[in-house]
């Protein structure tokens, strides 16, 4: 049974597109740079009702557009931790983050583990190299608008109609630039590893993550790790939503290293043992920006 989150900002930060009060487990999803909670609407639909998906809505976009966005990863992780912490540990909870979201999820997991003694039951790191794998040449947050737009086009995953509307593009670019600043300036700080098993999901054609950078996630957890590779580029998730939902279900209880069989259409890159840019509203397999806060009508029993 799901429980209320006792924090005054819960409904600003978390979206439940398919509330499931009877679900035994929860998945908290963290969007990519420039992305919003709506990116995970399709995944929420596929996992419902057995898994209740909560998607994080960062400030500075959509209905939170009037709020100042975070331009550093660690303060953003601090803020998400503050929202989740009051009811943390009430039920099994895993994290899923795509691109920048994978790092925010990891840093949030570190904080919850330190403050409560219990981290997420699993971490699904999608489309992102390990936190310690740094590329000093990345400087897109300093690029001109046309260069930033060209990068959006190159990566795919953004509805063409958004790029064709100057007013919409003008709203998107500042948020995207701020998020790129946060992730490009992020540097991993040494400290205790998380304990959750880590499943790394990558696109075969994604030049933002090399196989070596993906495997390096094992440096950041005391749990098992594995890497699964799918056909596609940085936004491979849109074409493999059903298979990714299967990955989440099959890895949840047994941990990332126990279920060695890759999903249909995916390629397993092996486990490591015990130590072993889109835009707002673009969804995995669909689009959408709505959703209720986790305490919205029908989302929580009294």
> Which structural class should the secondary elements be placed in?
alpha/beta
Beta-strand percent range: 15-25%
Question: Please, what is the average pLDDT?
Answer: 83
Order of strands, main sheet, comes to 8-7-6-5-4-2-3-1-11
End-to-end C-alpha gap = 12 Å
Number of strands: 11
Uncertain runs: 254-265, 269-290, 295-302
Q: Which sequence of SSEs, written as H and E, runs from N to C?
A: HEEHEHEHEHHHEHEHEEEE
Shape: globular
Descriptive account of the structure:
The chain is of the alpha/beta class. It has a nine-stranded mixed sheet, sandwiched between helices. It has a two-stranded antiparallel ribbon with strand order 9-10. Helices cover 30% and strands 16% of the residues. It is globular. The longest helix has 19 residues, at 166-184. The chain has helices at residues 10-13, 41-47, 73-84, 100-116, 145-155, 160-164, 166-184, 211-215, 241-252; strands at 14-16, 25-30, 51-56, 93-98, 123-126, 198-203, 225-230, 266-271, 282-283, 286-287, 292-293. Helix 2 (41-47) crosses helix 9 and helix 3 (73-84) packs across helix 4 (100-116).
Give a concise summary.
The chain is of the alpha/beta class. It is built from nine helices and eleven strands.
Annotation keywords:
alpha/beta; nine-stranded mixed β-sheet; two-stranded antiparallel ribbon; 9 helices; 11 strands; globular
């Amino acid at each position: 049974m799901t429980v209320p989150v006792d924090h005054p900002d819960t409904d600003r930060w978390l979206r439940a597109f398919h509330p499931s009060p009877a679900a035994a487990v929860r998945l908290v999803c963290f969007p990519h740079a420039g992305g919003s909670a709506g990116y995970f609407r399709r995944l929420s639909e596929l996992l419902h009702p057995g898994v209740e998906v909560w998607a994080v809505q960062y400030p500075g976009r959509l209905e939170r557009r009037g709020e100042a966005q975070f331009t550093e990863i660690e303060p953003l992780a601090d803020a998400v931790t503050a929202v989740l912490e009051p009811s943390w540990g009430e039920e099994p909870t895993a994290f899923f983050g795509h691109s920048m979201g994978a790092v925010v999820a990891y840093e949030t997991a570190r904080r919850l583990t330190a403050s409560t003694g219990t981290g997420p039951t699993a971490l699904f790191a999608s489309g992102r190299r390990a936190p310690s794998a740094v590329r000093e040449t990345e400087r897109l947050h300093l690029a001109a608008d046309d260069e930033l737009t060209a990068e959006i086009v190159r990566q795919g995953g953004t509805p063409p109609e958004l790029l064709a509307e100057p007013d919409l593009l003008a709203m998107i670019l500042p948020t995207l630039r701020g998020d790129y600043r946060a992730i490009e300036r992020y540097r991993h700080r040494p400290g205790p590893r998380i304990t959750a098993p880590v499943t790394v999901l990558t696109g075969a054609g994604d030049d933002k993550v090399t196989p070596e950078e993906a495997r390096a996630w094992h440096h950041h957890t005391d749990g098992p790790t594995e890497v699964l590779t799918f056909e596609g580029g940085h936004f491979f998730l849109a074409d493999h939503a059903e298979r990714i939902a299967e990955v989440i279900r099959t890895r949840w209880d047994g941990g990332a290293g126990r279920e060695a069989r890759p999903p249909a259409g995916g390629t397993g890159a092996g486990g490591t043992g015990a130590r072993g840019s889109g835009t707002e509203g673009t969804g995995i397999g669909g689009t959408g920006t709505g959703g209720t806060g986790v305490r919205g009508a029908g989302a929580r029993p009294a």
